[in-house]
Amino acid sequence: MLTQTYKNILVGVDGSDQGDLAYQQAIEVAKRNNGRVIVAHVIENKVYTMMGYSSLNDGLLDQETEGAKEILADCKEYAKSVDFNQVETVLTYGTAKEVMCQDLPKKYEVDLIMVGQSGLNAVERLMMGSVSSYIIRHAPCDVLIVHPETKKK
Description:
five-stranded parallel sheet, alpha/beta
């Protein structure tokens, strides 16, 4: 029987259904463990450079930043709706793989990272590789992959 308790659970959200599901599951795990959820959205500034945009293209970055703030605000709302207030939101820029595996786990003493199976489309996965598979191989703590559920009636 698994008796491990998790106090600091990190989950990445990107607006995808997989990310949302991972976040919802992270809250359930945190509730059972009397822990907290650090919900992060990482804006990949490399993507703009790779796509031929200048990394200083403020319009695109501003747009994505606004979208990220909305996603994180929705996360706060969801937590409130299920009577959970141990949520910390993080909006950061960089490479999702490094931020999720190194920076945030160190900063928040993360003992569990929860990720959706994949929030990327095929082209993005080809360009950047799956963040989920990178986290599984390189995380400094336990990792839980949240598989899409079949909706129960």
